[in-house]
Amino acid sequence: MASSSAAPKFTVRRRPEVLVAPAAPTPRELKRLSDFDDQVGLRFQIPIIHFYRRNEYMGSKDPVQVIREALAKALVPYYPFAGRLREHDGCKLAVDCTGEGVLFIEADADVGLEHFGDPILPPFPCLEELIFDVPGSSAIINAPLMLFQVTRLTCGGFILALRLNHTMADAQGLTQFLGAVAELARGAQAPSVLPVWKRELLEGRNHQHPELVHNKSDELVHNKSDEVPGSDTDTKASSNMLPLDNCQLRSFSFGPREIAAIRAQLPPHLQKRATKFDTIAGWLWKFRTVALAPHPDEVMELTVLVDARGRSTAAAGIPTGYYGNAFALPAAISTAGELCRNPLSYAVELVKKAKNQVDMEFMRSAADLFVLRRGQSAPITAGMYYLTDETKARFDDLDFGWGKPVYGGPAEAVGVPSLPWLASFLLASKNANGEDGIVIPICLPGPAMDRLVEEMTKLVRLSADVTLLHQPNVFPVKRSAL
């Protein structure tokens, strides 16, 4: 990887970590995680970070004290977070609700908010100082399930950074919990959304007879070559894709003009039906493939994260307040040749089709598959790419009394640091006029990155010809090395 161009280092002074326990007695019980929570690919820690400006209306209130006290109160209804994970029944995870608490660190840094750039976006300098890895705390089993660090800044602002054991919750579930902490910090007597456990909703069926698992589960991840548009069932392509090492990191911005310019390339029916995510995801999948220049028969797979909340069939859906992992990962699949040759609408339609598969039957079949393949990791190929819309989690809405954060979201620029080219986040941002936009940090090898920048430059030029009533400023391409 190329060397970092981060800002100069700064000093963080930390007090010894403490455990924040629930503010009132909580039940002592063992609560099983769902088979969605229990999948091997979620046994890691999610780092999240928020930057807050000084707020004169808060007077002398200390964010450390305010957040710590609100956290203790929130852990009463959300008491499983204060417990510890155990393994039972052959690697099956369950929460031992011990009430021990979550780790909390109080800290001060010798820099102000301006040190982190404008706009504030990942990668962040000295991240390891802002989310300190307390020795032994990053284990999945028998360790605290969350770690909080509140770092005061010289400007009067502060940074709230935290780490979550992903088996306990997804981004939506974490935001729900943090929203409860924020409400209590602002003086509420109780959270407006009460937590719902009900992890049995996403348990696999036929635990005792995995051979009876519904065939649909295999369809979720196994797409035979005759199911991939344009593929040759008798010939396996020998990949000539660029080596996916020595990657560069650059952030691509999509403002109202860029999104309108992409929509203008779609047929009328798609202009009306395609969401902002569909539009950006289709464009990025197509032109990232063009930039990588793979063999025309290479299978390219765009996996998108879809929150299953609010999606139901005749059977009961996922209830309001559910904070476990409840996301699906449907995939849009095409050969590189078809993806590059066809108009943009081809990619956008495939993204929409993949997303529309997700319902409760899809989720239950996926849970069946996790049971059948318990302990196995999914294979990774060079043609895979994961895209997650973090703007849906609304980390940037969390107000602990100091207003909304300048930045709130993933602490790392890429989804899988060990494979930086594999995954990207859609992050909320604003242009110079304060209008909402999307920023996507992307890692690619140098030659591919140059080609993707060229395609983005064409889009920016095209966007200049798109007339919008409010005439917003164009989002530039921000370049930074990783």
UniProtKB/TrEMBL annotation:
Gene Ontology molecular function: acyltransferase activity, transferring groups other than amino-acyl groups
Superkingdom classification of source: Eukaryota
This protein's UniProt keywords: Transferase
Keyword field contains Chaperone: no
Family: Belongs to the plant acyltransferase family.
Protein name: Benzyl alcohol O-benzoyltransferase
Record organism: Panicum virgatum
